[in-house]
Structures
1.
Amino acid sequence: MKFIDLFAGLGGFHVALNALGHKCVYACELNDSLRKIYEKNFNINIDGDITKLDIKKIPQHEILCAGFPCQPFSKAGSSQGFNHKVAGKMFFYLIKIIKFHRPKFLFLENVPNLLNHSQGKTWNFMKKKILKLGYEVDQKIVSPIDFNIPQTRNRMYIVAKKNKLNGFTWPKKLKPKNNLKKYLSNNPKLIKEMSEQRKNAIETWKFFLTKMPKTKYLPNPLWSMEFGATYPFENTTPLKIKLKELKKMKGKFGVSFKNMNKKEILENLPNYSKVRTEKYPDWKIKMIKKTRDFYKENKKWVDKLMPKLINLKSEAYQKFEWNCQGDKFNFTGKIISFRPSGVRVRRNNSSPTLISSTTSQVPYLAWKKRFMSYEECLKIQGMEKLKYYPKTNGVFFPAIGNAVNVKVVYKIGKELFN
Ligand SMILES: C[S@@+](CC[C@H](N)C(=O)[O-])C[C@H]1O[C@@H](n2cnc3c(N)ncnc32)[C@H](O)[C@@H]1O
């Protein structure tokens, strides 16, 4: 069948549908560099901005594929949905194209948050629009890990067929296997460099773990700035009490507020504590309490590491997320990602979601002492056969993080077009 690839990106839909024997007759993508790469990979002219194209010029097709921009619905974005200035409108452009061309199948992808956005109202509204055009629609949250592709990446897949879906069923989940290693290379080519600050963060937390008593519990997250802090957090908050009172207390890493002015005090409070509220939410109180209790129990050895932790400077490095309860306290076989919420450590059974909004969360393979390479990221997205791909961090990582997983699309497509 003939298909079109809207919001084409790196061409995840294209690769999967080609493999299923279908032919791309039209594509559009806003980003210039991605467009050039798409043309070289697939030998096809590709249009730009969907809002500017002449719908009538899109060739006749049976399948419409679109991973429409997801920032307005994603948790990482501001969740504005349809109110979003431009991207929220993309759905309406899709509807226009569907209305005009009436393809037999629709195959869409978005972030899982779309399903519950605005208490489910957004998706309900969208679904109704598609139904009204005479399609039967189904949707499901699917992740590559469901099919033993080692990436946790929940995405909402939407399938629709004119009239009826005719017994379409979603591909069945497979029994989990720990196979990330099969996707990694011994001779990786392109690898993102690691900053000195990050190297330092890894070394510091690695060292911290060597000191961690085997029998003790490591809270997750651990907000090390709370070590030695005594500012109030349970019944009130530091910005709500009198300065005179606050001066009797201690801030980040136990620094005394005694001789500080207001500005200095503010600089020595963790960022998350500086909200003007009578009381923190329960989850925040719990997190702070856990770290402070941990500190009380482990003060003797933790105090010796305090200068190293202070030297990490950024709070994102001073927070530690040990997602491996029950494992030995070391980085052997672990994947590390640098997130605004902290240095996150997880087991290596799968890669964390490759995300598009920042180039800084590329998974770091601790046992290989390097980030996941470009080629490895392509492989866990099922795009290893792409001949051309962006060669700079600033273009590559957002694009691969935006891409649809080829193997997931292939599996769903196989059932849908049957
Ligand atoms: C979620 S990504 C889709 C990725 C694609 N499915 C893939 O496999 O790589 C959305 C894409 O829509 C593109 N885009 C955003 N606004 C657009 C517009 N107005 N017209 C065409 N493409 C647009 C973005 O540049 C981005 O590459």
2.
Amino acid sequence: MIQRFECSTGLSWWLRLTLCAAGALGCALCSVTPAGAYCVYVANSESDSVSVIDTATNSVSATIGNAAVLFNHPSGPALTPDTRFLYVANRGSLDRVPGSTVSVIATAANTLAATVELAPGSGPYSVAITPDGAVAYVANQFADTVSVIDTAKALADPSTAVIKTIPVGPYPVGVAISPDGGFAYVSSCGAPCDGSALSVTVVDTTDNEVRTTVPGLFIRAITPDGQFAYSPNGFADTVQVIDTAKVLTEPTHAVIKTISVANFPYAAAMTPSGRFAYVTQCGEFCLSDEPSSASSVSVIDTGTNTVAATVSLPPTSGPTSIAIAPDGTFAHVTNGWSQTAAVIDTAKAVTDPTHAVIATIQGVGERPEGIAIAPLPMCVDGHPTCVGDCGVDRRITVDELLAMVNIALGNAEISGCNAGDRDGSGQITIDEILTAVNNALNGC
Ligand SMILES: [Ca+2]
Ligand SMILES: [Ca+2]
């Protein structure tokens, strides 16, 4: 951890900065874990908007979606690993016009950077992006395909960005990419998505060829080592535990355990350590579009493949999607019926589940479907960045470090560098300057 660095008031700014830089260099050898404060993106399918939640305050700090950024029933968002771009699937709706585009949002300004056109009527429902950020896979629920998007081309010339369209099982609703980036698992729920015909199509990302399609499987959250997947099946009230190697070699034995989880288990997320899989229980909302009679999140211990704890949500929540912070400290759950987001403290979820919901966020849009959390440790005015990047361009200059020093000395207002105030205290401490110097040296 960073040691508090006491600077004598008799020192010049430059000397202070030098001392702070020296302190930060020393600290590069130890683990620097910023406090968890992230931008969380929630796609609001019925509001044609995307809410940006700042986890420092657990409130909506920005809403994307206006005359310049038009969505069409957005869902299933995904961030590029560098957090510069948010891909949003515009599903459209069956009773109106199915969507056929993916919006690429530049997160630094929350403006539209590009629109990628898919085949008419595709109904893109969710996006996943490879760990190297080069390729996005889009599940098209009305076309029974997955679109392969070259993310560099999406910015340079969107009309050439779709490099392949791959047929998959009927009604694909999700894509999960293995942590090593080798495979894209496309999960289909079968027309008309009543649980009778699940299937997973395995796409090899090296050549975008289909390796196999396995009926009866669904793949959602994958352990960090890539060995196991946890997949809710609400129609059976179960969660499948899948050996991912066997999906290719021995598919009939790929499900190594089936865990009973009541009330329509629907979405899943893995803790960064891989120790727990979180599964939302969506209840009646996901089954029949009614207010849920029961809403909760189950925490599955991946060591024993048993339910370690269940965190209750207000009955009518209808939790539709979940994501876990990069530092593993909390989970964010979108509630489809109540138009809120719940924040679960992951430490309490296991030890004291009745007190694990630490915040309920109002002000997200109608029918949130899909969530993504930016890995950078600050969220300033609805834009992800890191500590010390006053101008929110992911580069930290000496001028920005000096601005922080000036604020710390009382010579300038905090508004000159909100991104320097990691803990939102309204002041800039030496610790925060050290963190900024560290970010300047090691990258934002
Ligand atoms: Ca900057
Ligand atoms: Ca502060």
